[in-house]
C-alpha cells in the first residue's frame, strides 16, 4: 500500500499536465503506461483495453469527455506485458493489476467508473472482484461493458453457454452496450439475467446497425462510423445511467 | 514425364491447401433436434420435419458476417455436387430484415433455401452463439455434426461425410 501511495504521489503532478503518458509502478513490479486525460469534474473513467487493444477512438472519446468534467485514464495493459492483441491475452492480465489501478483511481477522491469492451470484460470484472475484496465498504460507481465477451470458452453450437465464474460473482452497477448486428445480441438478455442473479443491477442497450468492435474496425460501415463518432455521448450516457441506478437504490 | 510431375505436384498442393482450409466437423453435443419452422423470402413455411428422409445442412448466417459471405459460393457448389441426392440446405438468416437479405442476395447468387428468423426464435432454440454456425441433420432428423466459423463446403472431406450420411439408412 505504501508503494501505491508513492506511485500516486508521483502521478498527481503528472495528471495536472494535459495528456502525457504516465508510468505507473504497480505493487507487483509491473510498470503500466497510462494516458491520462485530466478533467476538473468529480468523475473518473478507467477505460481498459479490449482484446483488440486500444485505438485512437478511445483517446478521441476521452478528449471529447474533458469539457464535460469527465477525467479518463487509458492504461496500456497489453503493452505492460508485451502481450498481443488477442482474446487469450485478456485471460493473462493479472486481476491484482486491475485492482491496483482501481485503487489508484480511488485515491483521487473522484467517483470511479470502469469501461472496457469485448473480452476485456473478463480481466476488468476479475480486477473489480479483487479490489472489492480489500475495499472495506468503498465502491466504484459502476462498470460499462461494450459488447462483452464473457463465455468460458467458445460455446459449441447447440450446447448451453457457460460464463466465466467471475460473472456469477460480480456485484456492481453495470451498463451493457451491445451491437445489434452481432450474435451476442441474441444472448444479451441471458447475460443480463445471469449478472442480475449474482446481485448486479444491469441496464442493457442495443446499438442499432453496428457489429462488435464497431469503433475499432478498420473497415467500418457508414452506420458503424456514425456510431463511433457518437462514442463520447454513448459513454457519458452510460455513466449517467449508472448514476441513476445508484440514486434508485437510495431511500 | 515432366508435365505429369508438375500436375501431380499441383494436385498435391491443391489438396494440401484444401485440407488446411477445411475445418473438421464436430460431433453434435446438444440435446434432441430443436424445432425449426420458418418462412422463406416468398413467405412459404419450411418445417425441418418435412425434410425427414433427407440430409439437411442447417446454417445460421448473416449478411454482416464476412466468413458467411465468403463461404456461400462453396455451399452452392456443394449443392451442385450432391444434386439429385436427398440433400437440402436451409440457410437461416440471423435476425436481419427482409430488405437487407434481398439486397444481399442480388449480389451473391445462390439458389438454396434462405429462411428468415427475424425474432431470433430458432437462434435461441438451436443455441447459436457465433456466426456462421452450421448443423448437419441426418435423414432421421437427428443433428449429427456441427461446425462453427467459415469453411469451403465443397472440400472432399465434407462431400464424403455428407455422402455417407445420405447413403445411411434413416
Automatic annotation (TrEMBL), chain A:
Keywords: Signal. Residues 1-18 form the signal peptide. InterPro entries: AB_hydrolase_fold (IPR029058). This is Alpha/beta hydrolase. It comes from Thiobacter aerophilum.
Automatic annotation (TrEMBL), chain B:
PROSITE patterns: PROKAR_LIPOPROTEIN (PS51257), THIOREDOXIN_1 (PS00194), THIOREDOXIN_2 (PS51352). It holds the Pfam family AhpC-TSA. CDD domains: TlpA_like_family. InterPro entries: AhpC/TSA, Thioredoxin-like_sf, Thioredoxin_CS, Thioredoxin_domain, Thioredoxin_ResA/DsbE_sf. It comes from the Bacteria. Residues 1-22 form the signal peptide. Gene3D superfamilies: Glutaredoxin (3.40.30.10). Keywords: Redox-active center, Signal. Residues 27-167 form the Thioredoxin domain. The keyword Signal applies. This is TlpA disulfide reductase family protein.
Amino acid at each position: 500500500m505504501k508503494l501505491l501511495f508513492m506511485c500516486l504521489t508521483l502521478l498527481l503532478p503528472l495528471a495536472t499536465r494535459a495528456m502525457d503518458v504516465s508510468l505507473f509502478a504497480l505493487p507487483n513490479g509491473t510498470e503500466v503506461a497510462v494516458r491520462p486525460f485530466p478533467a476538473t469534474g468529480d468523475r473518473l473513467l478507467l477505460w481498459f483495453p479490449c482484446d483488440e487493444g486500444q485505438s485512437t477512438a478511445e483517446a478521441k472519446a476521452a478528449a471529447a469527455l474533458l469539457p464535460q468534467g469527465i477525467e479518463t485514464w487509458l492504461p496500456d495493459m497489453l503493452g505492460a506485458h508485451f502481450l498481443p492483441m488477442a482474446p487469450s491475452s485478456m485471460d493473462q492480465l493479472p486481476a491484482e493489476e486491475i485492482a491496483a489501478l482501481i485503487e489508484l483511481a480511488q485515491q483521487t477522491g473522484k467517483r470511479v467508473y470502469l469501461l472496457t469492451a469485448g473480452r476485456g470484460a473478463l480481466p476488468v470484472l476479475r480486477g473489480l472482484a479483487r479490489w472489492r475484496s480489500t475495499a472495506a465498504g468503498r465502491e466504484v460507481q459502476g462498470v460499462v461493458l461494450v459488447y462483452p465477451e464473457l463465455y468460458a470458452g467458445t460455446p459449441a453450437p447447440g450446447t448451453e453457454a457457460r460464463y466465466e465464474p467471475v460473472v456469477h460473482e460480480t456485484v456492481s452497477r453495470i451498463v451493457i452496450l451491445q451491437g445489434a448486428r452481432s450474435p451476442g445480441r441474441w444472448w444479451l438478455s441471458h447475460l443480463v439475467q445471469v449478472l442480475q442473479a449474482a446481485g448486479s443491477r444491469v441496464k442493457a442497450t442495443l446499438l442499432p446497425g453496428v457489429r462488435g468492435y464497431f469503433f475499432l474496425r478498420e473497415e467500418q460501415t457508414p452506420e458503424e462510423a456514425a456510431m463511433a463518432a457518437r462514442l463520447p455521448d454513448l459513454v457519458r450516457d452510460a455513466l449517467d445511467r449508472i448514476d441513476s441506478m445508484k440514486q434508485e437504490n437510495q431511500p | 514425364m515432366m508435365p505429369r510431375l508438375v500436375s501431380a505436384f499441383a494436385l498435391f498442393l491443391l489438396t494440401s491447401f484444401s485440407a488446411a482450409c477445411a475445418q473438421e466437423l464436430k460431433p453434435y453435443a446438444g440435446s434432441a433436434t430443436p424445432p425449426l419452422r420458418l418462412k422463406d423470402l416468398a413467405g412459404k413455411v419450411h418445417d425441418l420435419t418435412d425434410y425427414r428422409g433427407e440430409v439437411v445442412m442447417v446454417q445460421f448466417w448473416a449478411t454482416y458476417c464476412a466468413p458467411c459471405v465468403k463461404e456461400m459460393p462453396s455451399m452452392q457448389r456443394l449443392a451442385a455436387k450432391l444434386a439429385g441426392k436427398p440433400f437440402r440446405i436451409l440457410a437461416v438468416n440471423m435476425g436481419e430484415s427482409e430488405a437487407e437479405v434481398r439486397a444481399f442476395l442480388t449480389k451473391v447468387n445462390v439458389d438454396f433455401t434462405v429462411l428468415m428468423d427475424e425474432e431470433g426464435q430458432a437462434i435461441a432454440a438451436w443455441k447459436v452463439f457465433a456466426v456462421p454456425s452450421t448443423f448437419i441433420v441426418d435423414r432421421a432428423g437427428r443433428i449429427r455434426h456441427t461446425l462453427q466459423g467459415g469453411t469451403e463446403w465443397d472440400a472432399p472431406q465434407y462431400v464424403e461425410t455428407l455422402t455417407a450420411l445420405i447413403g445411411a439408412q434413416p
